[in-house]
Amino acid sequence: MTEPIVGHAYEIHSRNLEVAVYVGHRAFVGIREKFDHHYLFTEFGGDGTGTVRSVGRDLGPVPEGIVLYDHLEARCSVCGRLTSWLPDGSTPTPGRSIHEDGTELEDGAGTVCGDNRPLFDFLANIEKELGL
C-alpha cells in the first residue's frame, strides 16, 4: 500500500469508520455513530496495525481552510487553558494532553473540545454522496 496523502479523504475499512481524512502519523478522522450520536473520531492504522485495517479509494483533498483535527481548541477542564496533544507512539492511546506551554495537566483534569463542524460537514457530504 502506498502512503496516504495528508489532507485527503479515503474510503477505509476500520472498526468504526467508512470514510475518513488522513491527518498523518497513521491517524484517520471520520464520522462515528454511536447510540444515534454522530461525531468526529480518530482511528489509527492502515499499515496492518491498529483499528484501520485497510485504506481504499482516494476521494480527494479536504478544501483549504478546514483544520485536520477531530476537534477544535481543546482546553483543560480544570483551568481552561489551551492544551496540545503530545504523541508518544504507544497504543491504545498514543500520547497525552498537556498545556500549550508544555506543563502537565492538573490531577484529574481532562480536555474539553469544540466541534470541528467544517470537517464534519465535508465528511458528511461525502458519505451522503456514497450512500452511506
Which secondary-structure class do the elements indicate?
mainly beta
Tell me the total number of β-strands: 9
Write down the Rg: 15 Å
Low-pLDDT residue intervals, each spanning 5 or more residues: none
Beta content: over 45%
Mean pLDDT: 88
Task: Summarize the biggest pleated sheet.
Answer: 5 strands, antiparallel
Number of helices: 1
Overall outline:
globular
| Domain unit count | 2
Q: What string, H for helix and E for strand, traces the elements in order?
A: EEEEEEEEEH
Order of strands in the sheet with the most strands? 4-3-2-1-5
- Spatial gap, N to C terminus: 24 Å
Q: What is the helix fraction of residues, given as a range?
A: 10-25%
What can you see in these coordinates?
The structure is a single chain. The protein has one helix at 117-130, and strands at residues 8-14, 19-24, 27-34, 37-44, 52-61, 71-76, 83-87, 95-99, 111-115. It has 132 residues and is mostly beta strands. It folds into 2 domains: 1-68 and 116-132, no CATH class; 71-115, no CATH class. A 5-stranded antiparallel sheet has the order 4-3-2-1-5. β2 and β3 (27-34) form a beta hairpin. The radius of gyration is 15 Å and the shape is globular.
Secondary structure: elements and pairs:
Elements (H helix, E strand, L loop, with lengths): L7 E7 L4 E6 L2 E8 L2 E8 L7 E10 L9 E6 L6 E5 L7 E5 L11 E5 L1 H14 L2
Antiparallel strand pairs: 1-2, 1-5, 2-3, 3-4, 6-9, 7-8
